Amino acid sequence: MKAFGKYISKHLASFAAFILVLALLNVLAFGITFQSVIINDYGDTSPQNMLEEIAAASTIEGVSDDARQKLESAHIWAMLLNPYGKRIWAVDTPEDIPEKYTIQDVALFSKGYLKDYPVFVWNTENGLLVLGYPKDSYTKLTSNYFSIHAIQTLPLYITGMLAADFLFLFLAYFFSKRKIIRNTEPIIDAIETLSDGKLVSLSVGGDLSGVAGSINKASRILSRQNEARANWISGVSHDIRTPLSMILGYAGRIADNKTINSSVKEQAEIVRQQSIKIKDLVQDLNLVSQLEYEMQPLRKEPLRFSKLLRSYAVELLNGGLSDSYLVEVEIKPSAENAILECDSRLILRAINNLVQNSIKHNPQGCEIIITLDRSETAITLTVSDNGIGLLPEKLQEMKEKPHYMESTDDQLNLRHGLGILLVRQIMGAHGGTMKIESTEAHGYKTMLCFPNQFNHSN
Q: Contact 344/303 with Cβ under 8 angstroms?
């Protein structure tokens, strides 16, 4: 967590530095954009400076040559009025500018415009100096003046700077997000993989190397725990096998002994059948453990699925299956030559678990149908029966609640048998999926879907 904190803090500091640089760029852009405006409005040719300079360079006869040249270069006209409002002299005054003014006229234009020319006045000892600037050069208020060019430029500047700021912020966000995703994606994927119980090995440098090291450490611990669990289950299975074989042997001898009364023989037969169930349970438990912790090597080879199913059905029927059970194998024409690359031993185990599940839950007998079909994308094996089925609540519980092998509940409540869990593990090892459907009093159906690896017929 400390490594993540440092990583986030570093990116926040980088973003804050970027904001500061962006603010400085805004100030710089403002200066560049309004440089000429500032120089014109508050520099040598500004109204205030020009009034002072021309007033100092003027007399009752006129202005100096330098002052006149400066007025002409700045496109400013000038005139001097006597106390009676009559023009004494003028420099480049437009034709529509009058030569005589009343006190009311002076009062009006001194704070604003004369014939739409923004004018500025200065009281000198020789009279009232009036400077007229070009039309549309300034807008005048009662107490101040503003450049029309500046007012016209300001909205464009604000719009442009906002657009640029948003663009830069978006680019900073985009590249920062991409960098964060690139750095954290392997870690997130590793955590998800680790949460599925699979092992990972990360090689991440930089600020997140500590997080990667912690994940690798957790993966090693998980690996040792998984190996210890699998070894423990394997060891227990091995230890049970020898006494269980002895129990099976003695129970079989008692059940087959003709000198023993029928009651004892029946009890011995029950012991033998239950011992067989324990033996199958131990084998399932060992196999589930090996598949769960990926310690079961898969011996995959291309296999004609229809041939495998028919062979299984023959073996099942020849194995002394009760007459109350009817087993049928239905191979769709499209699936007759379907080839599946698989571990035939595990696939047969999955099929047998489903068939035995139908037999176990329907002691009064039922019809079991094994169907094989193929589409463009999948090979589907369906094992269905017309038995008692499951209640909707039981079916939902089977789909949602974990098996005790996967449960973290201290009581390890049994949700369903190892048989279904083993089928699901075998399907996962072959890249397939399992789906269960059932309706009370209308049977039970399990569909196993394998990816269609061979789209041609052999």
A: yes
pLDDT band at 408 (very low <50, low <70, confident <90, very high): very low
DSSP class of residue 403?
P
Burial category of 129 from C-beta neighbours within 10 Å (exposed 0-12, middle 13-18, buried 19 and up)? buried
What residues pair up with 148 in beta bridges, in sequence order?
none
- DSSP three-state, residue 89: strand
Contact 138, 118 (CB under 8 A): yes
- In words, the CATH class of domain 207-292 is mainly alpha
**3-state SS class at 336:** coil
What is the token pair recorded at 261? 């009364």
Question: By three-state DSSP, how is residue 177 classified?
Answer: helix
Task: Supply the pLDDT for residue 351.
Answer: 92
- What DSSP line would sit under 12-25, residue for residue? HHHHHHHHHHHHHH
Strands of the 366-374 sheet, one edge to the other: 325-331, 366-374, 378-385, 444-451, 433-438
Non-local (6+) Cβ contacts of 345 within 8 A are 299
Integer Cα distance of 218 and 191 in angstroms = 10
Q: Helix crossing, 418-429 with 262-292: angle to 10°?
A: 30
Contact 350, 422 (CB under 8 A): yes
Rg (CA), the chain: 48
Whether pTM > 0.70 for this model: the answer is no
pLDDT in tens, 305-360: 899 999 999 988 887 788 899 999 999 999 999 998 888 888 888 898 899 889 98
> Are 207-292 and 301-451 the same fold in CATH?
no
Give CA–CA dist 351/308, Å, rounded: 10
Question: Where in the chain are the domains?
Answer: 2-33+152-187, 37-143, 207-292, 301-451
Task: Tell me what the pLDDT averaged over the chain comes to.
Answer: 80
pLDDT in tens, 428-448: 888 899 998 887 777 889 999
Distance CA 102, CA 88 (A): 15
Contact partners, residue 415, CB within 8 Å, separation at least 6: 397, 398, 401, 402, 403, 404, 407
Bridge partner residues of 77 (DSSP): 132
Domain 301-451, CATH class in plain words: alpha beta
Task: Tell me the pLDDT tens digit for each residue of 26-54.
Answer: 878 777 776 666 666 666 778 888 888 88
Helix (H) or strand (E) holding 103: helix 103-109
Helix, strand or coil for residue 233? helix
Within 10 A of 348 (CB to CB), how many other CB atoms are there? Answer: 17
